């Protein structure tokens, strides 16, 4: 068993049940790290979801890591990031049978998203029924203007590193 905790600096810490730190993660983002405000997993603990103070939701694949946390080849992979609300996400959960993520924000809105692609499906209180099978139309809520970002597997920015080096290199072709 692993315990996950979200922190003010945008970091997720994974702990053993003995209280030892197993891994630290930072979300891959083009924005500076922001406080994380909500965490959840699916029932089978294959994915970890986090909500942020700025309204983003991030999804990681954690299945291979949980099978053998000591094996360094089994990495946690951030797969998806999307803007769910314009304000803080206060809660979220994954409904595995329908493959949806439900998010709640400090602004009082509760929204439904496709779990695998981050596509907006609607909000609670809307006049029409939720159409969970039709994800061909890309629509966004009125206060969000960014489509979901798929994180490429090559992105290694998720693991928190203690020291960073950024040497300057002149590239005359650019």
UniProtKB/TrEMBL annotation:
This is WD repeat-containing protein 64. Residues 33-114 form the IP5PC-F beta-propeller domain. Coiled coil: none annotated. WD repeats lie at residues 82-113. Gene3D superfamilies: YVTN repeat-like/Quinoprotein amine dehydrogenase. Signal peptide: none annotated. InterPro entries: Beta-prop_IP5PC_F, WD-EF-hand_domain, WD40/YVTN_repeat-like_dom_sf, WD40_repeat_dom_sf, WD40_rpt. Keywords: Repeat, WD repeat.
């Amino acid at each position: 068993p692993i315990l996950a905790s979200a922190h003010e600096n945008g970091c997720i810490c994974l702990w053993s049940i003995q209280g030892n730190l197993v891994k630290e993660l930072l979300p891959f983002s083009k924005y500076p790290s922001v406080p994380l405000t909500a965490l959840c997993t699916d029932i089978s603990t294959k994915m970890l979801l986090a909500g942020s103070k700025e309204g983003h939701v991030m999804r990681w694949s954690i299945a291979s890591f949980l099978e053998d946390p000591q094996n360094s080849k089994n990495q946690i992979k951030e797969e998806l990031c999307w803007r769910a609300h314009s304000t803080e996400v206060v809660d979220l959960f994954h409904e595995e049978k329908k493959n949806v993520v439900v998010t709640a924000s400090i602004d009082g809105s509760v929204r439904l998203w496709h779990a695998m692609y981050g596509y907006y499906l609607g909000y609670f209180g809307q006049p029409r029924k939720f159409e969970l099978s039709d994800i061909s139309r890309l629509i966004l809520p009125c206060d969000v203007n960014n489509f979901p970002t798929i994180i490429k597997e090559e992105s290694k920015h998720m693991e928190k590193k203690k020291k960073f080096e950024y040497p300057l290199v002149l590239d005359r072709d650019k």
